[in-house]
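User: Hey, my collaborator sent me this sequence without any context and asked if I could get a structure. I don't really work with proteins. Can you help?
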Amino acid sequence: MAFVDVGGARLEVDRIGVGRSGAAPIVMLHEGLGSVAMWKDFPHRVAHATARDVVVYSRAGYGHSSPAALPRRVTYMHDEALVVLPALLDTLDIRRPVLFGHSDGGSIALIHAGRSGRPVAGLALMAPHVIVEDLSISSIAAAKVAWATTDLRGRLARYHDDADAAFRGWNDIWLHPDFRAWNIEDCAAAVAVPVLAIQGEDDEYGTMDQVERIARLSSDVEIVRLADCRHSPHRDQSEAVLGHLVRFVDRLP
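Assistant: No problem. I've predicted the 3D structure and written it out in structure-token form, which is a compact way to encode the shape of the chain:
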């Protein structure tokens, strides 16, 4: 584990250097409540399965990274994709990554690939959001109740220096009335690289419509529908995710 300074923030980064020479590294982007530690051993499994270097980091406000400015803005994923992520890639001397994003991380990957103007080898997305669905809002509202009535705070505190701030930063903006109009279909339409879009059929935070919209908007999209799978395919169907990921990166130019 290491820390890098990016735009005035100190971000925790784990770099797994097992890749073959010349293969584009995989940069993993976590979900709205994620962190380096919450991936557990999955980044190492990705690295060894694909024979590529893997970089995983905690965004500001998560894990052991610096605190984030709260409340977040409606544009917080654009800020991450177009300001923070480019600066991090430059700091780490990563020039043409495969972006592998989960949930919010998948949306950040889409925005970066579609709008940053920087080279990307491909996108692997798990449960990405391109629009705000009623299902998402209902589940995020239920998470707010769980935060107040269950041990959710204690469970998240194992992975974040400030679990309250991590939760509020995600929950508050998604439940803000202004966020209902959030939409990144324009970014998806501008993506010009291959996309692997993985969606669990039992996802409590989004429907299959999310990845189907990406497939209609972008020219090279492979959709994977996983049965018996909720919002975290890498936990519910890890072997299937790894298999699809390996085949996807192996066909990248």
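In plain terms: The mean pLDDT is 97. You can pass these tokens on to your collaborator as they are.
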